[in-house]
Design brief:
The strands form three sheets. Strands 1, 2, 3, 6, 12 and 13 form a six-stranded mixed beta sheet that branches. A five-stranded mixed beta sheet has the order 9-8-10-7-11, with helices on one face. It has a two-stranded antiparallel ribbon with strand order 4-5. It is globular and about 65 Å long. The chain is an alpha/beta fold. A hairpin with a 2-residue loop joins β4 and β5. It contains 14 helices and 13 strands.
Length: about 375
């Protein structure tokens, strides 16, 4: 899956408060003690997850233990780095659907959740244990999550569309958009056609998905290839409804004073969780202490504000940590206050045949289905 956090993220004024806002847990005496002082914790991670200031702050608060973030930019790179052996991380950050592949490769081991008491900060509506488990064994915990909903121009569509079928409505022919990603689009179409499991399609369901994509191709005017691309397309009026790669697209349009909104369709909304995994060599107390600190209210609020991410906090926890109502309005966090959200989210899993799905999508792009 492509990375979900916008690459146009800017440092926010929130961070200028510096260490005054730092988590008290981070400055408390290390629970590990001086025996850990010479240790290094290597992280296979992404931009915005551990900013240099945060790394220095945590190191200073933890007896000189060093953090070594190794930044990657795609899921393919995660596996390329691991297979090359050039990087031997203690912690891996990767989308939940990769947990099975990482476990099979021997790159991660069962997660010792007892060592992360701040897991209690995760919002109850986030059904995270199933996506982050393999064969019933918990392999990781969530860092943040997001939805890929149905977005629309509320000036054109007077009633919120509550079904994916709206993308196939002939009233919007030539005004529909989606983004270029096979692994994300096909589950959405599978939900639309009523597949029992959008990540484990039967032959008959594959046929229905292919037929629906063929029909959708006549509806779509432009297939976007990035957040800015999508924002510009909707702002120009070339599209009025579409599959939303990230709610930040809707928020960017709102900042332009354009009346866009999103819904979570009744068939279910494709959603993702970024997992935090521990490797065999990372099964150490100091590693788990670091991960516990990053699940604190203070660390999560800082990360959420900086990255524009949902994080893992409830709206109550986010407010307690100092996040504003204005910020919460730009996320899915307030959606999570609804009891119905837990049933609506359909988290990505490793599909039955990645190559087949990519070929179907390439045929869709080429118009040769």
């Amino acid at each position: 899956m492509t990375k979900k956090v916008s690459q146009s993220i800017k440092r926010r004024s929130f961070l200028k408060a510096g260490s005054a806002f730092a988590a008290s847990t981070l400055f408390a005496p290390s629970i590990i003690g001086r025996a850990a002082a010479a240790e290094t914790i290597t992280l296979l991670t992404w931009e915005t997850y551990q900013e240099p200031e945060w790394v220095k702050e945590w190191e200073a608060a933890n007896e000189g233990v060093k953090l070594k973030p190794v930044i990657i930019s795609s899921l393919d790179e995660v596996f390329a780095q691991l297979q090359s052996g050039a990087i031997k991380p203690d912690v891996i950050y990767s989308e939940a659907s990769t947990a099975g592949r990482l476990k099979k490769a021997g790159q991660i081991e069962a997660f010792d959740i007892a060592k992360v008491p701040h897991i209690s900060n995760v919002l109850p509506a986030l059904n995270w244990k199933d996506p982050l488990s393999v064969d019933g064994v918990l392999m990781g915990i969530p860092l943040h999550w997001g939805t890929q909903p149905l977005m629309y121009n509320a000036d054109t569509l007077k009633e919120p569309p509550m079904t994916w079928a709206a993308l196939w409505d002939k009233s919007y022919q030539g005004k529909v958009s989606t983004f270029d990603d096979a692994t994300v689009n096909i589950p959405m179409v599978a939900l639309y056609v009523g597949a029992k499991d959008p990540f484990n399609l039967t032959e008959e369901e594959f046929t229905r998905v292919t037929d629906a994509l063929r029909e959708l191709r006549t509806q779509v005017r432009v297939i976007t290839r990035g957040f800015d691309d999508a924002t510009n397309l909707y702002a120009s009026g070339e599209a009025v409804i579409g599959y939303c790669h990230l709610v930040s697209v809707v928020n960017s349009l709102k900042r332009k004073k354009l009346n866009f909104a999103y819904t979570l369709p009744k068939e279910g909304t494709p959603s993702w969780i970024e997992g935090t995994y521990v490797t065999p060599q990372g099964q150490r107390d100091i590693v788990y202490k670091f991960l516990n600190d990053t699940m604190s209210l203070e660390w999560q609020a800082r990360f959420m504000e900086f990255s524009g991410s949902n994080g893992i906090l409830t709206s109550e926890g986010a407010r307690k940590a100092g996040l504003s109502e204005e910020f919460l309005q730009t996320t899915n966090i307030l959606d999570a206050d609804s009891p119905a959200l837990k049933e609506n989210l359909v988290f990505f899993k490793e599909p039955e045949d990645v190559e087949r799905r990519i070929q179907i999508w390439n045929d869709f792009l080429a118009g040769t289905l």
